Amino acid sequence: MAADIAVVTITHAIQQAVAPVFLLAGIGALLNVLTNRLARIIDRSRNLHARLEMLGEERSATVHDELGVLSLRARIVNRAIGFSTISALLVCTVIATLFMSALAEWKGAYLVAGLFIMAMLCLIISLCSFLREIQLGTRVILNGP
Asked: Residues 91, 23: contact at Cβ < 8 Å?
């Protein structure tokens, strides 16, 4: 009889953890997008640095301006990656806490709620940073060189 109760408890804990696991998959996809954007920024920056030596004084100033924007974009994407990673870690902690509270019959509702709220705040900051980086990246296209 005790084994049946343990199986039911574990099954219930798994059911509770399904939604945060889907959230974790979404954060992983966001991290993939962010790291790809950072790689493109770094590649563009290396390309500009390589061309900088061959350019004249006039064109060199334009390249330095673009390198400044790329540096800012890289910092913003780096911040977004950091907050997304923290959010993913907090979601993992939520999942682990759900399992521990189910198995130990411990009431961790406030801890789970607090961790989940912190995960969402980090995800919001990450998404806002992502939006800012996209705005900076498209400004050159929309406003021209």
From this structure: yes
* Closest residue by Cα to residue 84 from 17, 37, 141, 44: 37
Question: Model pTM?
Answer: 0.85
The separation between the first and the last C-alpha atoms of the chain, rounded to the nearest angstrom, is: 74
Q: What is the pLDDT of residues 4-34, one digit of tens each?
A: 566 777 777 777 777 888 999 999 999 999 9
* Total residues found in the chain within this entry: 145
CB 100 within 8 A of CB 108: yes
Total count of domains within the chain: 1
- pLDDT given for residue 145 in this prediction: 52
Domain that holds residue 24: 2-143
